[in-house]
Amino acid sequence: MTNPKRILVICTGNSARSQMAEGFFRSLGTGKVSVASAGTHPSRVNPYAIRVMAEAGIDISTHTSKSVRQFLGEPFDFVVTVCDRAREECPYFPGAKRYVHHSFRDPADAIGTDAEILTVFRQVRDEIKAWVEDFLTNSLDSDEKDISVSL
After folding, report:
1. Does 147 qualify as catalytic in the annotation?
2. Which residues of the chain have pLDDT under 70?
3. Alpha-carbon gap, residue 29 to 116, rounded angstroms
4. What is the Cα Rg of the chain in Å?
5. What is the CATH number of domain 5-142?
6. With contact defined as beta carbons under 8 Å apart, do 129 and 104 qualify?
7. Per-residue model confidence (pLDDT) at position 89
8. How many CB atoms lie within 10 A of CB 17?
9. Catalytic residue among 58, 90, 96, 108, which?
10. What's phi and psi for 146, nearest 5 deg?
11. Catalytic pick among 8, 11, 68, 124
């Protein structure tokens, strides 16, 4: 059996998108990946992200928001940015073998009723899930240095 690929998923606040991606990578990539997430400006895990991931059967309630600085110097097979701002602000990881970028809208920007906000979080959650599934199927063993994976 091969060693799991190490993945670091980065967004701005490490509050929603990167946390959901981490949850899906853990759930769908069991045995294939070892994953962590971080933010360029960490805040807290968004309660809506926790709720919609629980609906998908994935518990991220114990996750914490972490800074990318905490992971500097660690070797990763993939450094994945899930928003444009994080891509622009992402520090260089000399131990990273590949960089991947796919921008998702920020569900934390959603406004409206509780139901309307949940709808946006569910849409982004489902987009991230589809992207993670595609990545695990089509890009995990890629030798390309920079990969932009989109559906």
Report:
1. no
2. 1, 142-151
3. 30
4. 14
5. 3.40.50.2300
6. no
7. 73
8. 32
9. 90
10. -120, 130
11. 11
Quote the CA–CA distance of 15 and 60 in Å, as a whole number: 11
Give the model's pLDDT for residue 142.
63
Q: Residue 117: CA atoms inside 13 Å, Cβ hemisphere, count?
A: 13
Contact, 14 vs 38, CB < 8 A?
yes
pTM here?
0.90
Please confirm, yes or no, whether 87 is among the known catalytic residues. Answer: no
Among residues 45, 50, 83, 118, the one annotated as catalytic is 83
101 is catalytic: no
Three-state secondary structure string covering 65-129: CCEHHHHCCCCEEEEEECCHHHHHHCCCCCCEEEEEECCCCCHHHCCCCHHHHHHHHHHHHHHHH
> How is the chain split into domains, by residue range?
5-142
